[in-house]
Design brief:
Elements (H helix, E strand, L loop, with lengths): L2 E5 L4 E6 L8 E5 L2 H11 L1 H14 L2 H10 L4 E2 H8 L3 H13 L3 E6 L2 E6 L2 H14 L5
Antiparallel strand pairs: 1-2, 2-3, 4-6, 5-6
Organism: marine sediment metagenome
Keywords: DNA-binding, Transcription, Transcription regulation
GO molecular function: DNA binding; DNA-binding transcription factor activity
């Protein structure tokens, strides 16, 4: 049986393995750069909650498609409707959710509303998801 433990003073992951022998128990210490880097995120509950909040907002397929449509540009609602291929009412509801969750920013110009991705880090996340999940010429 394995037990995970963080050795902050040693900055390494400690895997304690009760090694049952006639003599003693053994402890195996394995350095883990990945675990050491992830400890910062785990220690800050507000960061975890913010990440979960944003990922939940983007988790609907149409909202993700909207984010991919907008990308690094600023688009009017009708342009987004044309790209995603659904009704303006449906798109507007999803845009409102993304705006309320601070994923998108909007501005009004006369009778048109334009949307853009509010945070550049969200664009990086979308790019990473595209790399992982989108087929490339397959």
């Amino acid at each position: 049986m394995f037990y995970g433990n963080t050795c902050k003073s040693l900055k390494m992951a400690c895997i304690i393995w009760p090694f049952v022998t006639n003599y003693s128990h053994s402890t195996i210490r394995v350095p883990s750069v990945a675990l050491a880097e992830n400890v910062d995120l785990i220690e800050h509950d507000s960061d975890i909650e913010r990440a979960a909040f944003a990922l939940k907002a983007m988790s609907h397929p149409l909202r993700l498609k909207i984010l991919c449509a907008i990308g690094e540009q600023e688009l009017a609602v009708q342009d987004i409707v044309d790209y995603v291929g659904t009704t303006q009412s449906n798109v507007s509801q999803h845009l409102a959710k993304l705006r309320d969750k601070e994923i998108l920013a909007s501005r009004r110009d006369a009778n048109r509303i334009y949307y853009r991705v509010k945070d550049e880090r969200t664009l990086k996340l979308i790019d990473m998801m595209r790399d992982v999940f989108c087929s490339k010429g397959q």
